[in-house]
Amino acid sequence: xxxxxxxxxxxxxxxxxxxxxxxxxxxxxxxxxxxxxxxxxxxxxxxxxxxxxxxxxxxxxxxxxxxxxxxxxxxxxxxxxxxxxxxxxxxxxxxxxxxxxxxxxxxxxxxxxxxxxxxxxxxxxxxxxxxxxxxxxxxxxxxxxxxxxxxxxxxxxxxxxxxxxxxxxxxxxxxxxxxxxxxxxxxxxxxxxxxxxxxxxxxxxxxxxxxxxxxxxxxxxxxxxxxxxxxxxxxxxxxxxxxxxxxxxxxxxxxxxxxxxxxxxxxxxxxxxxxxxxxx
Length: 280
Hints:
7-stranded mixed sheet
């Protein structure tokens, strides 16, 4: 009887808007939620977080040093870009799904005597409409960690809705060309600090462009977690189509380097991440 009831419920959910479906995935914590619990201190020592100064230099250059612009940092983590840009005089709102990372961000902001609006928000259901001039989403912030392509699409749609007319998105995401000629497992093995993160058994699916792997992390309290991960890689033509479909008119794509987000870096197969700059 319960099987039939579950089938009926699933059918009803299929008919509902996306925002009503999210509860189905929230019943169980996803790997990215579990990973970042009690992980704020370790997060700040990860390799990918070490390029903050240079990345903020690049953001400033891209927005012409205009401090009147309102910026939203999506998937802000412990607030490294939010805080650095705030120090430089910009008004930035930081949002993240992790209470642990946000708590760390608030502590860091307070110690720097900064008043920053940090909020717990799901990027798939942002509450903002025509509120920001610039959105940044860097180093795997929210997109493309989601478990379905539909969810990744919802993030882009929500960002577009949150931006004002002529608003700009500056984001990085994993380059789908990279796994065609390189081993994702070898890349992580070279980059990871084994005391913080261990990447094992990665399988890249060329049909879905998803990398499924097992990672082991140790949190701030010394607790070890083994997580089954699922991350989506995109190729430039996919991102161009997705962004145009949610209202962006100009999309430029480049290679992304740690600490540098430059229009001068042409994307190639050696780039693990790509930089995308899109304008409405």
